[in-house]
Amino acid sequence: MEKGIFKMNLAFTRRDLAITALAASALWSARARAQALPKVLRIVVPYPPGGVSDNVARALGEKLAAQLGTTVIIENRAGASGSIGMDAVAKSAPDGATLCFSATSPLVLNPHLAKSPFDPLKDIVPVASVMYSPVLLLATPAEAARDFKALLAEAKAKPGAIRWATSGLGSLGHIVLAQLRASAGIDVTHVPYKGGGQQLTDALSGQFEILSTNAGPTLTAHIQSGKLRALAAGAPARLDSLPAVPTLGELGFETANLSSLFGVFAPARIPGALVDRYNAEINKALESPELRAKLLAADNVPTTRGAGDFAKAIAAEYESNGRIIKAANIKAE
How many domains does the chain fold into? Predict the structure, then answer.
């Protein structure tokens, strides 16, 4: 009897082991499939070709193609300040074959100004932070102030006299202005443009006194030539290209010390293993001297962080911008 029981238990044990091994094999296969990278990776850029976002996406795409051994295609889907391209990504299959390189504004600014076709906090997954683009506060030939303190004094002495241009209602430059109005108690006249081309032309000819816009090599060249004067920067730290220009945080205006954060995003429900893999590969690419030099040459500062930390930063920025836009009663055009 004991011998029979032993044989029965042994048979059961062998069968159990076989089932366990089969289950483990299936689990391993599922994880392997989840981590498998697509042969062709599409990176959507929700802005027109030739801009900063497009140039950075292509440089990053080249690095990822070399690291991953896959084909990377850059697809420009511009419109609605980035929301059209981001919506296309939100509606893509969550298989890792479609990513988005974009500023965070379609997620943290646009939804507060107009109805969004997607849920910015549920339909999109932040994958990796790539860079931040500082906001510069520039004096044009029409403005006599030599520093930010003198500008504030003039704004208080002559309410409404200073014309302050931004790239549009609800743009980051406008958010910076709204915060300065509130914290510094200044009264200036907002001049919203639609984009940056005409805005820069008018700045150089002195059609307004102050301009707040994202940094870039063209602006830096005009600053170095003396055509424009940088009074302050919205950034975590001073720019290497403008070491004498203080940040708004240094000047005591931390709530206005804002910069544009750019990163890579994916559709919701993408496997966590793929998010981790892409995050690691993007951070690796950002450590390369070639890509870092290309970003810094355009005054874009590389950033690296985990996907979870990036998601927390976006959620915090979404809440903060909502409060600012509501308090300042900013409306979309």
Answer: 2
